[in-house]
Write a structure and sequence with these properties.
The complex is a heterodimer of chains A (281) and B (345). Chain A has 281 residues and is α/β, with parallel strands linked by helices. Chain A folds into 2 domains: 92 residues, Translation factors (Elongation Factor Tu (Ef-tu), domain 3, Beta Barrel); 132 residues, Nucleotide-binding domain of ferredoxin-NADP reductase (FNR) module (Rossmann fold, 3-Layer(aba) Sandwich). Chain A is 22% helix and 30% strand. In chain A, strands 10-9-8-7-11-12-15 form a 7-stranded mixed beta sheet, with helices on both faces. In chain A, strand 1 and strand 2 form a beta hairpin. The radius of gyration of chain A is 19 Å and the shape is globular. Chain A starts with 11 loop residues before the first strand and ends in a 6-residue tail after the last helix. Chain B is of the alpha+beta class and 345 residues long. Chain B has an 8-stranded mixed beta sheet, with helices on both faces. A 4-stranded antiparallel beta sheet of chain B has the order 5-4-12-11, with no helix packed on it. The radius of gyration of chain B is 22 Å and the shape is globular. The relative contact order of chain B is 0.16. Classes of the chains: A alpha/beta (281), B alpha+beta (345). At the A-B interface, strand 6 and strand 13 of A face strand 4, strand 5, helix 3, strand 11 and strand 12 of B.
Chain lengths: 281, 345
């Protein structure tokens, strides 16, 4: 359709190309632009987020979980929780939905060239990191060691199971998966324990290393002191904030942490930046 | 831009011409003792008391309570979208707004344009002409002079009318939109009625305005707020807050909104509607976690947003001193008193 005025609330129409059931209640949707011209012009960078529409239900905010190095589609991974995510869960392959974005800042991947990367993720927070991980793996020789520590409540709750297997088999990736005590199955080969504890046990070196930490608030809270103990500086620790959003473009007024808007100044922040912000996240 | 003098009694004739020209006019209308902006079709409908403050502000002209962002239609697996044409937004005149209403459009425009351009707001504002009347009375809730405004301030007005004791009205035309409105009554706004820049009518205007000494300076407030995040003042001031959100709905600068779906089977529309930082659900995550879990943290957000974050990020203050929030508050939280006490700490 013609964009009569440049309306920042008008989504792109996308076709659901592929649906992957990642874990109980967790799905990944692969979306293609209905209009090839829009697909051609679309660009984003790792860390950015978008607003996803199920028409008739509303809009919901998730990161873009696929890497910008894979062209022609975007993916989102979400847990079915409320009205919109239930609507998105009901979509079938071939159906159309809405997508508005990309919004927000990015992980400074270009500044990480030549450095070792440590990814620490919990549960449904692997998706924002997966975008960075694939971006880095698609340009593998530009970066040093890649270490991934990923934990979930139970074996069933681990997302991207096929990709975890692929990363595990790669000689140029160190992957540690863990599940909370009681979440293991008899044939579980990974670790058992909370993610911060596994991080302490693995004890990756802080030298020339950037840590990217995404997960539920409690995981982040207990991971930061471990990283500090391992010698990571606050400006070498990156995370994403997930405050509630509606517009994504710095107007609707709910995602701010102090004077910063998560949708505009974030969602990516360093621990050094968070130290200077009030605890409104 | 030109200034004119006309008779008080000519104002209704001008308004009639504006209505006859097909403009949608909203003006203060008194119903059951409450005066608020309503669409009118004749000057006789306008509230008799020409000093009364409406309950709601004039922001609704450019930022309606609820508006369509786009509509959708689902057919099989396909979806088609359609959005409102700006031409469908009616040319609107806000008649007898107050200078504090007009002042509100400066922070609103800053919020809607500081980064991404909100062209729905911009298209409505471009079709809105504000005819403000200077205030000859102020009440105990008014404090425009403490936040950079004034009872005869032109900022944000397309036209400012000041009724003078002599029976004349000084009409200051401030913008091209204002000129277009004056041009609808060429008999009134003629060369013969033009007012020179050095006319004694401007001194007469000053003496006709409400006297409202400033109670604090916004710079003082901002300086105090820089250190006040952990102050007990937020809990003290908000203990009686009900979280009803009335303050935000009547405010001329509050722009926080929600985006909601309005579905009707296979078609529907996405709307945005006013929201308020006073509501607990405003920031609550799906998980139940809430970054602003108490009324005190929400009150703090309201004050810091308006008097600290907006000045720093947008070079605008989120308050015009109209006092509407305090008049509307069911538990009499008085913004002027609260700000004065912050400025004195």
């Amino acid at each position: 359709m013609d964009r009569l005025i440049d309306n920042p609330y008008l989504p792109y129409v996308m076709t659901v190309e592929r649906i992957t059931q990642e874990a109980p209640g967790v799905k990944t949707l692969r979306l293609r632009f209905k209009n090839p011209e829009e697909a051609e012009n679309f660009q984003f960078r790792a860390g950015q987020f978008a607003e996803y529409s199920a028409f008739g239900e509303g809009e919901c905010t998730f990161c873009i979980a696929s890497p910008p190095t894979r062209k022609g589609y975007v993916e989102c991974t979400f847990r079915q929780a409320g009205r919109v995510t239930s609507g998105l869960s009901r979509l079938e392959e071939g159906q159309e939905m809405g997508f508005r974005g990309p919004f927000g800042n990015t992980f400074p991947i270009e500044e990480w060239k030549g450095k070792n990367l440590l990814f620490v993720a919990g549960g449904i927070a692997l998706p924002p990191m997966r975008c960075v991980i694939w971006n880095v793996l698609d340009r593998r020789k530009e970066f040093g060691n890649v270490t991934i520590i990923y934990g979930a409540k139970s074996v069933a709750d681990l997302v991207y199971k096929d990709e975890l297997k692929e990363w595990d088999e790669r000689p140029d990736v160190q992957l540690y998966t863990t599940v909370d005590p009681g979440g293991e199955t008899p044939d579980w080969k990974g670790k058992v324990g909370f993610t911060p504890a596994v991080l302490e046990q693995v004890a990756p070196s802080a030298e020339n290393t950037v840590a990217i930490v995404c997960g539920p608030p409690v995981m982040i809270k207990f991971s930061f002191p471990v990283l500090e103990k391992l010698g990571f500086r606050d400006d070498a620790i990156f995370t994403t904030l997930e405050n509630r959003m509606k517009c994504g473009i710095g107007k609707c007024g709910r995602c701010n942490v102090g004077k910063l808007y998560v949708c505009k100044d974030g969602p990516v922040f360093t621990k050094a930046q968070l130290n200077g912000l009030p605890p409104e996240y | 831009m030109k200034n004119y003098q006309i008779k008080h009694s000519d104002l209704d004739g001008w308004l009639e011409k504006i209505i006859a020209a097909g403009r949608r006019v909203i003006a203060p209308v008194t119903e059951e003792g409450h005066t608020d902006f309503r669409p009118i079709h004749s000057p006789a409908e306008v509230a008799a008391d020409d000093q009364v403050q409406t309950i709601q502000s004039a922001k609704q002209a450019a930022f309606p309570k609820a508006e369509t962002l786009f509509s959708y239609r689902k057919e099989g697996t396909a979806v088609s979208l359609d959005q409102p044409a700006p031409e469908s937004y009616l040319q609107t005149v806000v008649w007898r707004a107050r200078p504090c209403d007009a002042a509100g459009f400066t922070p609103l425009s800053a919020i809607f344009n500081w980064d991404y351009k909100d062209n729905l707001y911009n298209a409505r504002l471009a079709r809105t002409t504000l005819v403000a009347f200077s205030c000859q009375q102020a009440d105990a809730y008014c404090f425009c002079t403490s936040v950079g405004g004034g009872p005869g301030e032109k900022k944000g007005c397309d036209i400012l009318v000041t009724k003078l004791p002599s029976g004349k009205a000084l009409v200051e035309v401030c913008t091209e939109k204002g000129e277009a409105l004056a041009a609808l009554a060429p008999g009134l706004f003629s060369e013969a009625n033009a007012v020179a820049d050095d006319s004694p009518l401007f001194a007469e205007k000053q003496s006709a305005l409400a006297q409202l000494p400033a109670r604090f300076s916004k710079e003082d407030i901002r300086r105090h707020l820089a250190e006040a995040f952990d102050s007990p003042v937020w809990r003290e001031q908000s203990e009686r807050c009900l979280g009803c959100g009335a303050c935000a709905f009547v405010c001329p600068t509050c722009a926080c909104f929600d985006i909601q779906e309005d579905p009707h089977g296979s078609h529907g529309r996405r709307i945005r509607c006013w929201d308020s930082c006073a509501f607990a659900l405003f920031t609550q995550h799906t998980s139940g976690h809430n970054p602003r879990p108490s009324q005190a943290t929400r009150w703090r957000q309201r004050i810091l947003h308006k008097f600290s974050y907006m000045p720093e990020r947008l070079d605008a203050t989120g308050c015009t001193g109209c006092g509407r929030c305090s008049r509307a508050c069911p538990v009499d939280m008085n913004l002027l008193e609260h700000l004065t006490s912050i400025a004195q700490k």
